[in-house]
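Input (structure):
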């Protein structure tokens, strides 16, 4: 597989290769599918209780491939987060969840004029409940994920924070990513890069440390990296080392988590033109990079508390 540069999908005018016939992602819509909340003072050392409670939205991103149709990156929470017995009870205690019927992914899609039946597949960043829950609404979709995450779903465990009820309800059609490819930009920052559709329209990158087999999604035409839970939010990227014991224990491999955060910070410094969006950023729902929405998203991300 030849390596692909960061702007290989862009035309000479800087726009996306709209007229050369190559596959690309044409549309990206950010959706909020429930949220949880916590005090930042419970998560990081040196933070005051006066900072209050931070909301952590659960991101699901809809994107359209020019030849293959509609896909999701993650699917947010579903009511199933409350239906896994004692695991749900403990999760809700440590991590209070807001999940109303109108927050479910099918209704969020309809809110922006997207028919849920258009969703052909779901790129799953990892198998935590705020990313996987909504996938059960799409029984005919194909789940695209890392081989490590696929294995974790086959053997749900509290250690991996994989809810057994969500794993059972996940669509059966699954495709593990691989083999890795070389990429002129992404390979400088991430241990493994995957060409998701084999056509350069979207790349998955390994984001080690937070959860087994976690991946992010880079969309060259939008110049955006959806970085899942590699940090609790953009404002926390440089604070990984300040994390308190309990949230630290949630990370599968804390040293790897910190190393991934450093790689993302380096990418951000080297390439300010690329937006890194974390799943729990305070993003604005709606079409991304259209009608000034991109600027709105960035300004919202800078807000930290409510
Ligand atoms: Zn997670």
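Output (sequence):
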């Amino acid at each position: 597989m030849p390596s692909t540069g960061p702007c290989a999908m862009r035309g000479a005018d800087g726009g996306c290769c709209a007229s050369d016939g190559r596959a690309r992602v044409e549309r990206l819509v950010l959706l909020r599918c429930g949220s949880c909340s916590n005090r930042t003072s419970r998560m990081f050392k040196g933070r005051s209780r006066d900072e209050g409670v931070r909301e952590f939205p659960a991101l699901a991103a809809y994107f359209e491939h020019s030849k293959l149709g509609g896909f999701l990156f993650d699917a947010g929470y579903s009511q199933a987060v409350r239906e896994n017995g004692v695991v749900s009870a403990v999760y809700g205690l440590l991590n209070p969840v807001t999940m109303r019927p109108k927050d479910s992914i099918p209704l969020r899609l309809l809110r922006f004029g997207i028919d849920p039946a258009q969703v052909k597949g779901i790129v799953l960043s990892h198998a935590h409940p705020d990313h996987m829950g909504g996938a059960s609404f799409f029984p005919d979709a194909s789940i695209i994920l890392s081989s490590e995450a696929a294995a974790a779903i086959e053997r749900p465990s509290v250690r991996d924070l994989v809810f057994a009820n969500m794993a059972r309800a996940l669509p059966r059609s699954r495709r593990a990513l691989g083999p890795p490819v070389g990429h002129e930009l992404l390979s400088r920052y991430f241990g493994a890069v995957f060409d998701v559709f084999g056509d350069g329209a979207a790349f998955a990158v390994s984001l080690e440390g937070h959860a087994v087999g976690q991946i992010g999604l880079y969309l060259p035409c939008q110049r955006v990296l959806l970085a899942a839970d590699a940090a609790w939010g953009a404002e926390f990227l440089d604070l990984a080392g300040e994390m308190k014991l309990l949230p630290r224990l949630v990370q599968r491999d804390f040293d790897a988590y910190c190393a991934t955060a450093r790689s993302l910070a380096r990418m951000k410094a080297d390439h300010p033109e690329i937006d890194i969006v974390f799943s729990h950023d305070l993003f604005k729902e709606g079409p991304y990079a259209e009608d000034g929405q991109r600027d709105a998203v960035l300004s919202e991300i800078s807000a930290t508390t409510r």
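Notes: Confidence is low (pLDDT under 50) at residues 1-15, 301-306. The chain is about 25% helix and 20% strand.
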